[in-house]
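task queued by scheduler; priority normal; single chain, no ligands, no partner chains; default sampling; output format set to structure tokens
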Amino acid sequence: MVLKICSSKYFLWPFILASQIVISIIWYYSGIKDEFIFPNSKSYNIEGYTDVIDGGNTEVLEQSVSDSLLIYSFHLKEGFVSPYAGIKFTSSLEKFIDLSNYNQLCLTVKSENINRLGVAIYSPLDEEKKLNEKDETLFHSYLSISKRKKIFQIPFNDLKHPEWWEDMHQIANKSDVFPDLNQILHINISTAYTPDISEEKSLLVYSLYFSRNNKRLYAYLFIGYIGLIVLLFVVIYWVKYRKKQSSQLTVIYKPVEIIDEENKWDQKCIEYINQHFHANELNLEQVAKETGVHQRKITNLINEKFNCNFKTYINRIRIQEAQRLLTKTDLNIGEIAYKVGFNSQSHFNRVFKAEEQMNPSEYRDNQA
């Protein structure tokens, strides 16, 4: 019977068509070549930058480019709130970089005296949202780097607006915002917030390119392909060989007792946030994933209990812990900002003043 069904035209032709479609999709996506930004001196320009453009004093010590290595050495100096230095990659052939065929950024890098690295891509910003003529849309992610050479693969889904950028443009935090991959203006890699600025720092880049990870696509194709074959087989079997429906069975059973565990899950959400507030990348999507509670339910819960949104609630916890550290320790304000979960001291200062009507330095002086 199985052989008859599989050899029938009703099964064979849909099977052949589905197989051809799957093979075509795999052939197309597996043929997409990586887009190398570095090394690729013919198509892309490399430009170093520092906080000097914001009135800072960071000094570039070396910038050298070879066929296999980019070295960028600098000395962060006080002068800007959060001293920084970085490298900017732009196309030398087109105004925009088209990354629509790719879904991840790959970076091979190591460092001297740098622990965290920011990786960002920029695209055009809507005119009505611009604060100035050169304003752009920013998506970024942070990496932990060291003296050991390491390859990073960053899915585009991990690139998000930084909090300070959302605050500046008065944009609500959304986990589903995605960059316009058809119109990428440039790619930047730079130092993240660095409390220690006393030592010379070096960034060594071995490669930067965009690629396509097809594992998820192939998994979906395989599941859909097998599901289609099974469904096709069952339908043909049902049409050609079904038997008379058996009489229905009457089953007497005891209903399952339903236990309301809403309060239990509500408490789990709050406990998770309270225990992980210091993680600077904590967001609504992560809390929902770790606790198993829907994002909308978490938002409604915080609004009902604390009369504020998710982001405000986390900031209040962070500010409360910052007050304790300002009072009980001698840590400088930059270190405290990083410990309680802020990516930059300037963002910490703005949130602290909004909550307490005074900046952290004034608060510490008042508690002395």
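post-processing summary
- The first strand starts at residue 35 and ends at 38.
- The two ends are 88 Å apart (CA to CA).
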